[in-house]
């Protein structure tokens, strides 16, 4: 279900972005503009305001974990449902994350990636990246019922 253009574009995006910047920036943005997402990160310490969130080392570390997971997803494009099965169970049963939040975080990732790619983030690139994130989110939702 992926065209050659989509495959190469998605791979290309991950080759171009700085994951160690995108992950922390996207998670910081999510926790700041959708403050109810903070409830899952009680163990992360001070999330008192935007500056505190941006400076929080646990937020930064977790942002990198999420981006790494997405990069590994790119290597499993044809089997994303399976690849994210365990993580779906974890988020559903153990972490009990409301799955609507996946979309909020991936939207933040899109905004930050767009900022890093600048002109290279054409409408076609945006569409391919959105499709990738949508399939990841659908895969993460899979074990919820
Ligand atoms: Zn999540 C965790 C991924 C979203 C919350 N995550 C996690 C991990 C990973 C992930 C890889 C690790 C695991 C282990 O350790 O095993 N996520 C992810 C992805 C996504 C997500 C890919 C999308 C895209 N999350 C999310 C959201 C939320 C979350 C939206 C909320 C809001 N996670 C979470 C938590 C955790 C996780 C809370 C745990 C952390 C700690 O504790 O450290």
How far apart are the termini?
26 Å
Radius of gyration over alpha carbons?
15 Å
Oligomer: single chain
Low-confidence stretches: none
Number of helices: 8
Bound molecules: protoporphyrin IX containing ZN
Mean pLDDT: 97
- Please count the beta strands (DSSP E, at least 2 residues each): 0
Strand content: under 5%
What does this structure look like?
- There is one protein chain.
- The chain is mainly alpha-helical and 145 residues long.
- The chain has helices at residues 4-16, 19-33, 50-55, 57-74, 80-83, 85-94, 100-117, 123-141.
- The relative contact order is 0.17.
Short description, anyone?
The protein is mainly α and 145 residues long. The chain has helices at residues 4-16, 19-33, 50-55, 57-74, 80-83, 85-94, 100-117, 123-141. The two termini are 26 Å apart.
List the helices and strands and how they pair.
Layout: H1 4-16, H2 19-33, H3 50-55, H4 57-74, H5 80-83, H6 85-94, H7 100-117, H8 123-141
Helix pairs in contact: 1-8, 2-4, 2-7, 7-8
Features:
mainly alpha; binds protoporphyrin IX containing ZN; 145 residues
